[in-house]
Amino acid sequence: MKAIGYTQAGPIDGNGALLMMDVAKPQVGPHDLLVAVKGISMNPVDVKLREGRPPEGPTSVLGYDAAGTVVEIGSDVTGYAVGDDVFYAGDVTRAGTNAELHAVDERIVGKKPATLDFTESAGLPLTSITAWEMLFDAFRVTEGGGAGQSLLVIGGAGGVGSMLIQLVKTLTNLTVIATASRPETQDWVRKMGADHVIDHRGDLAAQLNDLGQTPTYVAALTATDQHWSAIINLIAPRGHIALIDDPQSINITDAKPKALTISWEFMFTRSVFNTADIAVQRDLLNRVSAMIDAGTLQSTVTERADVLTVETLTDAHKRQESGRVIGKQVLPGLSA
């Protein structure tokens, strides 16, 4: 089958960065679905792995969002049948979705939204899971809870921020303050539902003080090194900071005087470690799908390619590296 992969880690314009290749059809395990991939999306993890993780064999295939149709099921599969349309974020320990066919554990797969096509649907899974787990697993906010408290989202216009803002406003009573620095990103986070917008290039604490807000929760989605001191200063005592990026140097003892909680959100943890509750990702994706179809959540796609080729995927990687993507980038799958 056809796939787009890389042969050596490094920059996107280096030799062997992305190549069209023939690879073997995936092996289907007992809990696996074999999916004809009809839509994919770009995420920061694609760039990080391409730049820093050499292929374990001659080649490696990236891609950690997909929507498609089930064409084969494993012996222990109970929730899906051949012909079902699905969407999911996959598993970083397995070959990715930039291929015609992809094998994935049914327990991390949801039913594709009926109101979106495959390409648009592929923009949802990874960011939805990340945002959901941060809100409900890390922060432990309850549905309908959070009244009188606020959440600061640093980097609100990215893929995760765009979905987190929507989930918070749809499912909780938290006040949402999102950071954005450009007029177009500020307009975007307001569209997603942010109650207040502040500029992360300015003094965060001063801007929050002007709003009369002392956040109980901070979602540190980008540039945590840069904002760490400000976060410690502005957050409420006994507040909670959750991170998704990879800061090189933060001093966690800064959090001691306020007795803060610090946690990381990594949506691949459940699939990598096959946790006992792995199937909650299936359940939450089905919730997200239902909310999309009901109109209570909206797509966060802003950039869409017409075809998946080495050239269009290379362009998507370059855009991701620019740090200026609003919402999500999506492309058709190789089986589209």
Please give the oligomerization state of what you see.
single chain
Give the full name of the CATH homologous superfamily of the largest domain: Medium-chain alcohol dehydrogenases, catalytic domain
Shape: globular
Structural class: alpha/beta
State the share of residues found in helices, binned by percent.
25-40%
Largest sheet: 7 strands, mixed
Alpha carbon gyration radius: 20 Å
Element-level helix/strand string: EEEHEEEEEHHEHEHEHEHEEHHEHE
Termini separation comes to 14 Å
Could you say how many structural domains there are in total?
2
CATH class of the largest domain: Alpha Beta
How many E strands? 16
CATH topology of the largest domain: Quinone Oxidoreductase, Chain A, domain 1
Our estimate of the beta-strand percent is 15-25%
Helical stretch tally? 10
- CATH architecture call of the largest domain: Alpha-Beta Complex
Q: List low-pLDDT spans.
A: none
Task: Describe the structure using short key phrases.
336 residues; alpha/beta; Quinone Oxidoreductase, Chain A, domain 1; Rossmann fold; 2 domains; 7-stranded mixed sheet; 6-stranded parallel sheet; 10 helices; globular; metal-binding; oxidoreductase; RNA-binding; Quin_OxRdtase/zeta-crystal_CS
Give your account of this protein's structure:
- This is Zinc-type alcohol dehydrogenase-like protein.
- Residues 14-331 form the Enoyl reductase (ER) domain.
- Homotetramer.
- Its main location: cytoplasm.
- GO terms for molecular function: oxidoreductase activity; RNA binding; zinc ion binding.
- The protein is α/β, with parallel strands linked by helices and 336 residues long.
- It folds into 2 domains: 2-123 and 299-332, Alpha-Beta Complex (Quinone Oxidoreductase, Chain A, domain 1); 128-264, Rossmann fold.
- It is built from 10 helices and 16 strands.
- The protein has helices at residues 44-52, 118-121, 125-138, 159-171, 183-192, 204-211, 224-234, 269-272, 280-294, 310-322; strands at 2-6, 19-22, 32-41, 60-61, 66-73, 85-88, 101-105, 109-111, 150-154, 175-179, 196-198, 217-220, 240-243, 261-264, 301-304, 328-332.
- The strands form 3 sheets. Strands 3, 5, 6, 7, 8, 15 and 16 form a 7-stranded mixed sheet that branches.
- Helix 3 crosses helix 4 (159-171) and helix 3 (125-138) packs across helix 9.
- It starts with a strand and ends with a strand.
- The model has no long low-confidence stretch (mean pLDDT 97).
